[in-house]
Amino acid sequence: MPNIESHRLVVGTGTQAREIAIETRPGSAPGIFWLGGFRSDMAGSKALALDALGAETGRAVTRFDYSGHGISGGDFNEGTISRWLEESLAVFATTKGPQIIVGSSMGGWLALLLVKALAAKGEKRAHGLVLIAPAVDFTHDLMLPSFSAEEKAALENQGFFDQPSQYSDQPYRINQALIADGENHRLFGGVIEAGCPIIILQGGQDPDVPQAHAIKLVTHLLHDPVTLTLIPDGDHRLSRDEDLVRLRDAVLRLAEG
């Protein structure tokens, strides 16, 4: 069984340079490429389940932390969709052959932006997408409508506010730069094309990305084969043992399809 290789990649130049931590398991194609969620890291249960699947099946697996996340360098408070997409593209460029891209929450949005950017360069290595509670356009569609008048005022006057999180003891800082930059990457309102099969896993009890959001995404995917699996009692993380089995099965279906 090949061992995991840990390395770092510098993305950006000058004051924008940051070191991105990457863990790669060598193996066969199609490989598995992991895109985590907002404030998550590559040591989470879903990412590790995918690494275990790679070890079991001999497939290559690539995981990494966005800047300001996990063990990567950079400041989370400088994070934007543009910045994290740039890092995703840079890490993807280190992979070889076709890849099954697995994106969770914000990673689902980044997965679709990644294949869009690759297609614009004529690169079609996406073998399939697995999107877990995909938070497409979340800065506009999910965040903005939930902000209170006080939070909106704080964004305008000081450029940020701190929001309590059910996933951490520390509040999440929401920056105006993140919200403003998200406007440059909105996908809803037009046809979304991935150029490969897509499997969506969505929890019916997800308080952060409601099932209606996943259905909305499906209505925009007009040219790709799409399977939406609604898990009635599933939450946002979808990290229970039975959820991880569904994730493994989804990846294997695409790999063997």
Mind explaining what this structure looks like?
The protein has 257 residues and is of the alpha/beta class. The chain has a single domain, classed as Alpha/Beta hydrolase fold, catalytic domain (Rossmann fold), CATH 3.40.50. It is built from eight helices and ten strands. A hairpin with an 8-residue loop joins β7 and β8 (172-175). The chain is globular, with a radius of gyration of 17 Å. 40% of the residues are buried. The mean pLDDT is 96. Its EC number is 3.1.1.93, 3.1.2.22. It is an enzyme of class 3 (hydrolase).
CATH architecture type: 3-Layer(aba) Sandwich
How are strands sequenced across the largest beta sheet?
1-2-4-3-5-6-9-10
Point out poorly predicted stretches.
none
The H/E string reads EEEHEHEHEHHEEHEHEH
Assembly type of the chains comes to single chain
List the total number of helices: 8
Q: Estimate percent helicity.
A: 25-40%
CATH superfamily placement: Alpha/Beta hydrolase fold, catalytic domain
Question: What is the CATH domain class?
Answer: Alpha Beta
Number of domains: 1
Q: What is the beta-strand fraction? A: 15-25%
EC number: 3.1.1.93, 3.1.2.22
InterPro entries: AB_hydrolase_1, AB_hydrolase_fold, ABHD10_acyl-thioesterase
GO molecular function, one term: palmitoyl-(protein) hydrolase activity
Protein name: Palmitoyl-protein thioesterase ABHD10, mitochondrial
